[in-house]
Amino acid sequence: MSLTHDAAVSPSAGRRFRAYTTKHLDELTVRAGLGAEERLAVRAVANVLPFRVNSYVVDELIDWDAAPDDPIYRLVFPQADMLPPEDVGRIADLLRTDAPRSELNRAANEIRARLNPHPAGQMELNVPKADNDEPVQGVQHKYAETVLFFPKQGQTCHAYCTYCFRWAQFVGEPDLKFASSEIDQLVAYLRQHPEVTSVLLTGGDPMIMGEGVISRYIEPLLQVETLESIRIGTKALAYWPQRFVTDPDADETLRLFEKVTAAGKNLAFMAHFSHPNEMAPDLVHEAMRRIRGTGAVVRTQAPLIRTINDDAATWERMWRDQVRMGMVPYYMFVERDTGPKDYFAVSLARAYGIFRDAYKNVSGLARTVRGPSMSATPGKVCVDGVTEIYGEKVFSLHFIQARDPELVGVPFFARYDENATWLFELEPALGATRFPYEVPSPADTSALADPARA
Ligand SMILES: *Cc1c(COP(=O)(O)O)cnc(C)c1O
């Protein structure tokens, strides 16, 4: 492909990256038109949950006339009511009285600990062992064919999403972090585990790394014959498309992508888009053209988030625009059970309705998308529908992905619950006493119907 710059990008495209953090929050919330009390409450939330935005998101993506209701504003700015009022009040009082940093941190840590910082056992489960029985740092191996790798220098993002399920990694608590700078350990592990065909670089956002750093992770992987694909989970196309067009290492980055495809592996660029407005700027189209030109395949995924993208028209537009731009819709996720989950949660019943209402209107090219999908401890569970079987209203579900591969693709049922927002709130249906992924209790070895439940 040609790596010369195209001119069809906005004048701000070449501007240097500038991050805004909690220090700058007050001037930005003034711009959004918030009053003093609310601004203090927003600052209080930003002392518990991570906040970071950048000049591109502020200048090009947010519609300030529509703030604070603008979906992109809501995507990156903390909301005063994202946390319980007593927690917000406690931090706000400390801020108001200029309490010492140590006191503020102590209060913030107490609140964080109550927000299920590590959903689905991320820190303890699925960490593989090397030959010498030492854990392979920064690696998560939950599903046989795919390994997640968290490069140490990739543990931040160009901006933070308010709903991020990895929020705990961004709040400066060393024991909440999970990362590695050791690519050699991963390569050794892959050589011992030829069943692993896909490595997913994640974070944070691996595209926060410059080409000189990310290439040191990717190039060794090209030598692993059994590896079929390298995935990069990233929101850079939405939050900093300059990374692929005008940044000093943009061209080198595209050459790195070309090396992956030339090595006979799929470079799967897993783009996180939460809202169609993120795909509107010319710069994103230009970045997308350049990435496609390397032979990489761009697939898209995002969670369904209340107040940001919880309507079918938004998803329909997003999937249609993605197909137009050459992207492949991949997953619609259910918001995970962590952080300000209660604030952003959409019930499974509503999530299914939104998915279906969008899905039924798009061409088969966009129906590569799967969801709504819950990434839970036993695996990724898809809500296929709501139906009635012998008079009982049920959710029909299946595992898209499972720790136990035998469960993949097998339908199972849960009692319909209008308010349930996550797998563990569901109960087995149709007389079953447990879900297929649950170990039978000693008293239930036959897994026969339990009359007490019927
Ligand atoms: C989603 C996920 C993967 C990848 O699963 P695919 O269905 O292949 O996209 C791998 N590991 C973990 C822990 C995941 O959550």
TrEMBL record:
Its domain of life reads Bacteria
Q: Per the entry, which co-factors are needed?
A: pyridoxal 5'-phosphate
Gene Ontology MF term list = 4 iron, 4 sulfur cluster binding; catalytic activity; metal ion binding
Keyword annotations = 4Fe-4S, Iron, Iron-sulfur, Metal-binding, Pyridoxal phosphate, S-adenosyl-L-methionine
Concerning InterPro entries, the annotation shows:
Aldolase_TIM (IPR013785), Lys_aminomutase/Glu_NH3_mut (IPR003739), rSAM (IPR007197), rSAM_sf (IPR058240)
Query: PANTHER family per the record?
Result: L-LYSINE 2,3-AMINOMUTASE AQ_1632-RELATED (PTHR30538:SF0), LYSINE 2,3-AMINOMUTASE-RELATED (PTHR30538)
Name of protein: KamA family protein
Q: What is the lineage of its organism?
A: Bacteria, Bacillati, Actinomycetota, Actinomycetes, Streptosporangiales
